[in-house]
């Protein structure tokens, strides 16, 4: 379900080619340029503000609400939206607005942490493959290609079955299958860097590898990695919601948007709002992150932008 | 060409074997066995049950037995649904899932690819913006959101279509739309990107300079190369449709493999999980093999590069 | 009546960053069988001129603003798209700079050649294939009958350019436009490809527009020359006039920059600076900031007109510099300093 597949190969090709020296020496102006380009992209800016609003809504919202996500009031079960409960209540009389906010916290948390896990695995794997090169690289990348083609959703399910269904396991299990694109990008960046003649010159002048990596590799790869990470977050959230929907993800009393959507669809004939609110916020989040990712790609990586 | 197919086929078999081993390992690693429940069972009875299913033997021996059995098409008994074998379940439920999956994939291809071509050819007009905006919405509406919405609109509000069960063509419309539309959105974007890349190539200018009409340029000069990204995505799309079927079959109460897999995962039905995983993986491996062959057929340069 | 008579053709590109006037008021004439060289740096508008003649400019962002392209007296700019298609590849054909990307990698050579024939000629497949093989043999492709079945990637760069030439000439066009046909090729192959074009031209009586940045190629090949700079023609005339009696400062600098004409042991002459940004209006002479001759006045007057000196030799004489003096060596930093407003 990776939204990134089409972007990865183009970025990869561009990164692994040697760049002109001046492209490395741009330094901070690259980020200024990128920010200017992003600001001009109206859709991406709307998405950015939308995403920040959703995060604030989920993180700060529960503190301001008079209700508690677990506080049941069976007398007021399954009421439609009203002045008292803006989003209505669920079958157990819990305030749906707080439940949606708290579910969002978990969904966003999974999105961020699992993406971080994927980032770590991808960077280590990709950098190793690119740095060692040769046969090791060939084998490592063949493995990545093979994994790309595998039903990894099924593996996440198997992992959840085998090791229980804790939140921590969700982070690791999802992170463990979403690192492939990241690894390819980082590897391409390392290979591109290795081809630079001035890197050899820097080595012969006695600059340390750490310095080369800090000054040249990271700035070169950071842009694409940020883009892929932005696009990985919605992919991860999708996977988490998918698992939770099937009852294999987040377990009660915790709830994520996937859990809420599942509860909602079971009762939607009578209480459609139980489905509508969480589904709306979930779709809106995916929407804003995808557009933001696209905008970031155009901003940070103008050469890869097509039309 | 034959050598290439044989090599890829061999690789596919190896991948399948690896998946089988990995799945077996994951299932075997799980603490306890499918039969340890909250109900107190007398230890000697439990031991008897476990001996019946072969759980008293060392893991490696169990792996070997299960692999040789699997090669003969026998995936063992269902651990939860007594007196039904996994093979029986597969034989019963697979046709349902196969029908649903095939229709969904066709929906995805026959909506997505024409839409992508149209958008690329008419780029920066409303014929581009409209399908592309629709596809962006489609990508943000995963099966478990789209499914309930379709049920609500077409099944409950307008009552046009049945929303539960699997008894005839009208029962297939909503599930196939739920599964297929998400991937139609994907195929549309990939096809548009591929076609645009082709349209920007120098050789298109050559074709125009020859006096070739625009329609020939699109169908003859662009399509082969322009479809490659979409073709490459067929493998992941099948994998996605399989996992999507877990959701769709649950929402629409369809008696297919997806529902069995979810039940198996929730109930720790080891043999069922193992059998279904290998079946799904096998389907995906076959699809990837097909994709490799189609790619080589489409792109003459590949024959020599590999 | 000349075969081709282009009058005041202007093409621009409407980009988000502004309007780029890529070709301004271009006029040229070409008789049957004649060869015209168009010379200039990259970005001088020579390719844009050629694409405009065949209307191969991507529209948008490109737009042919004004002018006439009279081909045998008919204005091509007034033709419908389908009428234009019957001209392209049949009466006027074109070959491009990079043979590696100009052939479709997904289709066999035979398919592409047969297509070129059958688009214009209602011929059956077999006859077209025979004609294609003959065309390949005529441009010196060995074993053409079997190699015609190959894909482009199985050919070398020089061979691909031969295929392009064969494809362009397969319908015996009256005019061949060759847009830097040898730039992307090895030096040894360049001469062969030029010879093939010349030989085919002699045999078929085709008129040729040869676009190049190499003044040396023009001298050996063309009857007439147009020198372009910053989207304008700065000098035009017969090859002899332009080559042996260059008037414009830019033509003179170009000539001085031909490596084989320079004395040994002397540093290679290059024209300092870069061409002006065509999205901004140019005051006076466009070449002024890079002009190696001593300046006689400031660059603030009107743009110079193209005026005829003698017998068809035209020059956009600016009068901003003194060309009787020898070329000064202009240092790069001076150019930069003058370019900044």
Descriptive notes:
The complex is a heterotrimer of chains A (307), B (306) and C (341). In chain A, helix 1 runs parallel beside helix 9, helix 4 crosses helix 13 and helix 5 runs parallel beside helix 13. Chain A contains 13 helices and no strands. About 3% of the residues of chain A have low confidence. Chain A is elongated and about 75 Å long. Chain A is mainly alpha-helical and 307 residues long. Chain C is 31% helix and 23% strand. In chain C, strands 6-7-8-3-9-10-12-11 form an 8-stranded mixed sheet, with helices on both faces. A 4-stranded antiparallel sheet of chain C has the order 2-1-4-5. In chain C, strand 11 and strand 12 form a beta hairpin.
Question: Keywords for this structure?
Answer:
heterotrimer; A: 307 residues; mainly alpha; 13 helices; B: 306 residues; 14 helices; 77% helix; flat
Hey, roughly how much beta strand do the residues of chain A contain? under 5%
Cα-based radius of gyration of chain C, to the nearest Å: 21 Å
Rg of chain A, alpha carbons? 22 Å
Structural class of chain C: alpha/beta
Task: Summarize the structure in short.
The complex is a heterotrimer of chains A (307), B (306) and C (341). Helix content of chain A is 73%, strand content 0%.
How does the SSE layout of this entry go?
The complex is a heterotrimer of chains A (307), B (306) and C (341).
Chain A: H1 5-16, H2 21-25, H3 29-40, H4 42-64, H5 96-132, H6 134-148, H7 152-163, H8 167-175, H9 180-194, H10 197-204, H11 209-245, H12 257-266, H13 273-300
Helix pairs in contact in A: 1-9, 1-11, 3-13, 4-5, 4-13, 5-6, 5-8, 5-9, 5-11, 5-12, 5-13, 7-8, 9-11, 11-12, 11-13, 12-13
Chain B: H1 2-29, H2 43-52, H3 59-71, H4 86-121, H5 126-139, H6 143-157, H7 169-199, H8 202-209, H9 214-226, H10 228-232, H11 234-251, H12 257-267, H13 270-298, H14 302-305
Helix pairs in contact in B: 1-13, 4-5, 4-7, 4-11, 5-7, 6-7, 6-11, 7-9, 7-11, 8-9, 11-12, 11-13, 12-13
Chain C: E1 4-15, E2 18-30, E3 35-39, H1 46-53, E4 62-71, E5 74-75, H2 81-87, E6 92-95, H3 99-102, H4 109-118, H5 125-138, H6 144-147, H7 157-169, E7 175-179, H8 187-204, E8 207-212, H9 215-221, E9 224-229, E10 232-238, H10 239-244, H11 249-256, E11 306-310, E12 313-316, H12 332-339
Parallel strand pairs in C: 3-8, 3-9, 6-7, 7-8
Antiparallel strand pairs in C: 1-2, 1-4, 4-5, 9-10, 10-12, 11-12
Helix pairs in contact in C: 4-5, 4-7, 5-7, 7-8
């Amino acid at each position: 379900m990776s939204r990134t597949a089409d972007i990865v190969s183009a970025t990869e090709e561009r990164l692994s080619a040697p760049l002109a020296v001046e492209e490395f020496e741009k330094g901070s102006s690259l980020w200024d340029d990128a920010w200017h380009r992003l600001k001009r992209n109206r859709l991406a800016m709307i998405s950015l503000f939308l995403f920040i609003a959703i995060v604030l809504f989920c993180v700060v919202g529960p503190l301001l609400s008079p209700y508690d996500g677990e506080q049941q009031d069976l007398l007021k079960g399954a009421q439609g939206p009203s002045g008292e409960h803006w989003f209505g209540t669920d079958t157990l009389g819990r305030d749906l607005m707080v439940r949606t906010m708290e579910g969002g916290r978990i969904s966003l948390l999974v999105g961020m942490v699992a993406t971080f896990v994927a980032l770590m695995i991808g960077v280590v794997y990709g950098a190793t493959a690119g740095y060692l090169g040769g046969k090791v690289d060939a084998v490592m990348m063949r493995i990545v290609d093979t994994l790309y083609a595998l039903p990894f959703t099924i593996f996440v399910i198997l992992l959840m079955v085998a090791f229980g269904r804790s939140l921590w396991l969700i982070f690791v299990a999802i992170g463990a299958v979403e690192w492939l694109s990241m690894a390819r990008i980082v590897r391409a960046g390392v290979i591109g860097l290795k081809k630079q003649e001035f890197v050899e010159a820097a080595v012969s002048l006695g600059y340390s590898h750490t310095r080369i990596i800090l000054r040249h590799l990271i700035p070169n790869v950071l842009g694409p990695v940020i883009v892929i990470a932005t696009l990985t977050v919605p992919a991860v959230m999708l996977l988490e919601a998918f698992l939770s929907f099937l009852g294999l993800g987040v377990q009660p009393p915790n709830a994520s948007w996937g859990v809420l959507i599942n509860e909602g669809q079971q009762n939607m004939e009578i209480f459609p709002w139980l489905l509508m609110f969480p589904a709306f916020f979930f779709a809106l989040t995916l929407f804003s992150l995808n557009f933001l990712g696209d905008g970031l790609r155009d901003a940070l990586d103008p050469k890869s932008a097509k039309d | 060409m034959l050598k290439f197919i044989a090599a890829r086929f061999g690789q596919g078999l190896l991948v399948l074997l690896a998946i089988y081993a990995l799945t077996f390992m994951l299932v075997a690693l799980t603490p306890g066995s499918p039969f340890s429940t909250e109900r107190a069972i007398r230890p000697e009875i439990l031991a008897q049950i476990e001996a019946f299913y072969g759980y008293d033997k060392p893991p490696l021996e169990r792996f070997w037995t299960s692999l040789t059995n699997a090669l003969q098409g026998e995936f063992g008994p269902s651990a939860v649904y007594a007196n039904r074998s996994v093979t029986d379940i597969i034989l019963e439920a697979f046709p349902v899932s196969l029908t649903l999956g095939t229709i969904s994939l066709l929906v995805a291809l026959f909506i997505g690819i024409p839409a992508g071509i149209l958008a690329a050819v008419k780029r920066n007009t409303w014929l581009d913006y409209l399908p592309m905006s629709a596809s962006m919405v489609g990508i943000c509406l995963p099966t478990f959101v789209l499914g309930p919405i379709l049920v609500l609109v077409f099944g409950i509000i307008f009552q046009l279509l049945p929303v539960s069960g699997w008894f005839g063509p009208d029962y297939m419309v909503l599930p196939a739309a739920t599964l297929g539309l998400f991937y139609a959105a994907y195929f549309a974007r990939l096809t548009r990107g591929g076609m645009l890349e082709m349209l920007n190539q120098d050789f298109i200018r050559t074709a125009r300079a020859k006096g070739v009409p625009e329609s020939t340029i699109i169908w003859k000069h662009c399509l082969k190369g322009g479809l490659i990204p979409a073709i490459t995505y067929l493998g992941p799309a099948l994998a996605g449709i399989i996992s999507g079927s877990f959701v769709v079959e649950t929402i629409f109460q369809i008696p297919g493999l997806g529902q069995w897999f979810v039940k198996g995962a929730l109930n720790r039905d080891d043999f069922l999980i193992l059998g279904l995983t290998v079946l799904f993986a096998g389907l995906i491996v076959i699809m990837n093999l097909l994709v490799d062959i189609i790619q080589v057929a489409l792109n003459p340069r590949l024959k020599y590069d590999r | 009546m000349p075969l081709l008579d282009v009058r005041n053709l202007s093409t621009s590109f409407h980009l988000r960053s502004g309007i780029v006037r890529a070709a301004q008021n271009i006029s040229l004439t070409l008789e049957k069988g004649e060869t015209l060289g168009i010379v200039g740096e990259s970005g001088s508008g020579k390719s844009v001129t050629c694409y405009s003649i065949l209307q191969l400019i991507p529209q948008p962002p490109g737009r042919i603003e004004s002018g006439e392209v009279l081909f045998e007296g008919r204005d091509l700019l007034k033709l419908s798209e389908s009428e234009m298609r019957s001209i392209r590849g049949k009466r006027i054909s074109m070959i491009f700079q990079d043979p590696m990307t100009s052939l479709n990698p997904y289709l066999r050579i035979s398919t592409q050649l047969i297509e070129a024939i059958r688009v214009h000629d209602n011929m059956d497949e077999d006859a077209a294939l025979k004609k294609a093989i003959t065309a390949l043999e005529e441009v010196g492709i060995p074993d053409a009958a079997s190699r015609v079945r190959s894909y482009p990637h199985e050919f070398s760069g020089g061979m691909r350019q031969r295929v392009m030439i064969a494809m362009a000439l397969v319908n015996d066009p009256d005019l061949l436009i060759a847009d830097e046909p040898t730039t992307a090729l090895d030096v040894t192959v360049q001469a062969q490809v030029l010879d093939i074009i010349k030989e085919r031209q002699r045999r078929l009586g085709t008129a040729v527009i040869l676009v190049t940045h190499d003044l040396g190629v023009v001298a050996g090949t063309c009857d007439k020359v147009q020198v372009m700079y910053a989207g304008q023609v700065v000098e035009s005339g017969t090859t002899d006039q332009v080559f042996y009696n260059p008037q414009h400062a830019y033509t003179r600098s170009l000539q001085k920059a031909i490596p084989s004409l320079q004395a040994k042991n002397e540093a290679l002459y290059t024209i300092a600076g870069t061409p002006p940004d065509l999205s901004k209006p140019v005051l006076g002479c466009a070449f002024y900031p890079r002009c190696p001759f001593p300046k006689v006045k400031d660059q603030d007057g009107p743009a110079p007109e193209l005026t005829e000196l003698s017998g068809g030799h035209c020059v956009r004489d600016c009068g901003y510099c003194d060309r009787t003096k020898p070329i000064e060596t202009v240092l790069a930093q001076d150019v930069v300093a003058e370019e900044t407003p």
